[in-house]
Amino acid sequence: TLRTVAPGQFALSGDVGMDTAAALQAQLSTALQGSNASLDLAGLGKVDSAAVALLLDALRRQQQRGGTLQLHHVPDSLRVLAELYELAPLLGLAEEAKP
Question: Model pTM?
Answer without folding.
Answer: 0.90
